[in-house]
Batch of 3 targets.
Target 1
Amino acid sequence: MRKCGSCQKCCEGHLHGEANGYTFWKSRKCHFLSTAGCSIYETRPDVPCKSYKCMWLEDEEQKIPEWMKPDEANAILTWRNVENVEFIELIEAGETMRAEVLSWAIQYALNNDLNLHYQINSGWNKIGDPDFLKAKI
């Protein structure tokens, strides 16, 4: 079973959410993230803190390579469902997406017939089935 370890990309201001009344979003880290890690780890809220799992962490079969761990890839893979449309979301997390990260994600999506919504230089792109491509995400 994979563990976050020192990875804190989901708390560093790359995702959107709220913890105990404090909102975080792109470029605004979680209020409770300190240099030592989560300052409320033992009492952190269920949503999003305990319930959120990036795809790398959830990958029990380890189809996603070790180097795609968010703090190594500087990108976060998340499984999403918006308006009954399922897709993988790949976001930049700290730097512009590296070619090998994007290439791996595109191949993974294509090989597994999955929709992919990805971010490059803060711009969004999609590949996938026609319904996904038409969806307003």
Note: The longest strand covers residues 75-82.
Target 2
Amino acid sequence: MSEIYLIRHGQASFGQENYDRLSVLGMRQAKWVGRHLAELGRSFDAIYCGRLARQKKTAEALVAEYARAGLKTPTLTISKAFDEYDSTAVWESQIQQMAAEDPAVAETLNDIYSDPKTFQRLFAKVMVRWVSGEFDRPGVQRWRDYRRQVQEGFQELMRRHGSKKRLAVFTSGGPICIAVQTALDLSDRMAIELNWQIMNASVTRLLYNAGGMALSVFNDVTHLETAGDTGLISYR
């Protein structure tokens, strides 16, 4: 069988004007995952990432760590199939109606940028509405279309590289949860709720052959835990 390493990007810059860049912590996380895989001597037949800066920079950190260890890596291939969903567009398409329906939501909006936990609770509700397909808005990508885009990306990956290959995909929580959803035949709601458990710079591993995909390892951060710094663990 072949194997896909799904590596979530390091921590992005939440609350900053440009979210799509690694924070200082995110850069450290990216370096550690690259160093860990280099020390294990994991070779890859292909390396992919989405188009987002935080995904590319995490992939580039692995390439740099491999080079430092004297190991070669294939050329990084960029594919929109592994982009994250547009969370800003999804949020804006749902939050106004949610606030109109529930005064408690409107009151919560005042606290979302000062309290990450409050933001996460509200954002989770926004995402559940989006994946339900009952509140689709013109001009905003539908969940089912996004899911199909990601699934087709993985199918193309498997067709292109075939058997007995090891691939790395640097991506975000959305594509990872859809890959796991596909492997385990989960519902859309279960998939999006699984997303909240995916840690920065974590490694999820899938096996695949002509029959489909199977989950081997989910959300592994051993490389961060053994670094001796609990501050390396983050979800957002």
Note: The first helix runs from residue 24 to 39.
Target 3
Amino acid sequence: MLGTLVEAAKRGDEEAFGALLHSVGDTCLAIAFRILRDVDLAEDAVQTAFITAWRQLPSLRDPDRFEPWLHKTLVRACYAEARRSRRWTAKVRMLDIEGASSADVLTVDDRDQLERGIRRLSPEHRAVLVFHDYLGLTLSEVADRLDIPLGTAKSRLHYATAALRSALEADARTPALGQERLA
């Protein structure tokens, strides 16, 4: 089905392209948000990626590779958006945790600490974490989607994990604001 839509879109069928985007849009937005950590920037990156995809779709040789090809385009748009805008503002969003067990839910402090650690990573390192940990792709699939060598994907994942661990450990050692006065 997806291959049929891709073939039709390659021939200029706007409705087929719209159906393609509808099928992958939420995932693309989730990926962009997890890389950029900002809803507005993520929406801009997704829109840019979709426009680029429409323009470059005729050059896609294998319709079955549409999603990996689109993810490469999306990641490049995220990197460009990150370079354009150096503002990393925190946004508060309510997360639906209905049905989640207490073991599945991080405390607000844990989420804040994890968010601070992730924000310290470069967009390139966040991208590897998103594709590997959020989407559950293998490192070779991550390398393919990010259009980087496998060794680079391994290195970035290692560095991102180590940097995130260091940031979390540093935050754990730093007393909360105001607590140092109580001692």
Note: The chain has two domains: 1-87, 105-175.
